[in-house]
Amino acid sequence: MPSMIRAIQSLWQQIARRPTRRMALWLALLLLVAGLLVTLIWLAGRYEADQNQARVDRDAQDAASDIRAGLTRNVQSLQALRTSLPQWKLDAEDLLRSRRELARLEWRDTNFKLLASAQSPYIAAPQLPLNPRDIPYGDLQLACERARRQSGPMYAPSHFSPLSAGQGSELMELCLPLIQAGQHQGYLVAVYGLQAVLVEIVGKPLQRGQELSFTEPDGTRLAIQGVARRGGRMFTSQQLLDLPGNTVVLRADSWRITPDLFPNVLTAVVTVMSIALVGVLLLLGRDINRRLRAERELADALAFRKAMEDSLVTGLRARDMEGHIRYVNPAFCAMTGFDADELMGKKAPMPYWPPELIDEYQQRQAVRLSGNAPAREGYESVFIRKDGSRFSVLVFEAPLIDAQGTQSGWMSAILDISEQRRMEELSRASQERLQASARLATMGEMASLLSHELNQPLAAISSYAAGTANMMQEPSIASPQDVSHALTQIANQAERAGKVIKSVHDFVRRRESKHERVSAQSLLDAVMPLVQLQARKLSVQVQMGQLTGLPAVMVDRVMVEQVLLNLARNGIQAMEATAPAQRILHIRARTLGTQWLEFLVADFGQGITNEIAKQLFTPFFSTKAEGMGLGLSLCRTVVEQHGGFLQFEANQPNGAVFVFSLPVASTNMPSNLDVAQ
Ligand code: ADP
User: Fold this and answer.
1) pTM value?
2) What integer pLDDT is reported at residue 598 of this predicted model?
3) Are β-strands 541-544 and 584-592 bridged in parallel, bridged antiparallel, or unpaired?
């Protein structure tokens, strides 16, 4: 039964999805129910009409048999009358009092001559003429004739007997032959008032709510008893009252007053049940509509969620407690190149695990499934695509808690970070290239200084060489010591030139980035030749602070050398307008706590205005005609990469001091240990 209801419901829902069809169905249903209702009420009404008709028929039959029995009883009573005067008269009067339907009794002899008569005190009936000759040869004589012949009672047809004041009554005579010892003695005539017959003989209960009447075959009423209420519907039944010598029609009429709304209980029950049925149908309809709406909302919500899941770029994967994959979203499939069907239900080793890492991943998964892994913490992993290519992912796992609050598995969000890694790599490479370019740019600036610097040894070499050549032309003046001295000088100058070139070369050469333990002294020694080159050009005096006794730092020395060189160069250039006596550049270092070593580069230049300070570290910001504006921004990047920071302040009385900090190398670290970045 429930399955049938479900089937009907689903059919209904299918149909009900189309609004016009739904309306038509509702209309059909309502029409059907209305039709059913009307039919039921009609049937119930008809049933009740049949009942009423049957009741009237029964009543008419009962009335007819009552009348028959009453008349027969009267015949017997009449026969019992004593045929001697004055007893007959006494008996007759008694009988007339007890049988009120009898209007009059007459005793007549064989010649139809009246011997005695008695009149009912209740019904007026005219006396028949005393002399038989005066009686018109009518129905009565005919009846009596037939009664004599048949030796039994015989009824004459009824007739209207007018009384005074237009009144009158329908009377019917009964003729009873008097026979004694086989001899015909005369006749007993009993006059019945038909009205009284209806009143007295028919059982009283039968008459209520009904009208009983004697009618002629053409419908003319002879006598009526009981006035039924008029109006409404009439039920009629006719019974033939077959009396010897006469046949009268007994008619029973019964009226129903205005037709009832509910003719009987059956109709009422059917109506109430039908109304209840319609009510239930309406409620059901409302319920179905509500369900449909809820279903639609649910479908919308599901579609929205699915759209959200499908448009996510993050891969989603759900696994049950045993590690079987229960769900993957399209992003995860796109990431790994596997279809959802290929992954569904799979457990370790997963098809997207690199073969050589299966053992490691299996252990990792075992730890995670046992619940020992820190929840909601991301870890990096490498997956393999279906085409064999690998990619880095960041996986976040969280317990999958169902609606009952119990954990049913694990939910993972997977981010493809291969692109991010590539970008990081690219940015690192471009950063390195930028730094190299910056170094080259610095070198470009220094090229003129270099040529000037190289000029001196080259000029010296050239003049020593020319002197030596002269000496060779005049060997008498030149001593071998002189020549040897000149050659030594040439060699020294050449070496000096070589050193200059090497210092530049060392600086420019790209080296692998590595952190090493370096003393402050050696850092400054490395850049001093280049600083000096520039300082000499602008007649700046470079003063170094006390550097011995300071702890070594753990740095990428190439980078830090460039920072020192940049800051020194900036300081020197800032003092172009300073009075020559005050063109002094201070470079010193000091400890800052135990962890840090601070380098200070101070000048007495024009200083840094607030305007410039705002953009000082912005790449490509420069106030110099030939400046690239990259120096300070690179310096800050380098210092921050080492964990320190770079800042500046005003120098007294004028100029600027740039300060940066570097991490102190721990004492037990070997001086040349590579530390991975
Ligand atoms: P560049 O030297 O190529 O201009 P930097 O990034 O090294 O690029 O410097 C940016 C600007 O900061 C310089 O143009 C200059 O105006 C200002 N600046 C840097 N150092 C100093 C300093 N010691 N004194 C005054 N101004 C400075």
Assistant:
1) 0.43
2) 94
3) parallel
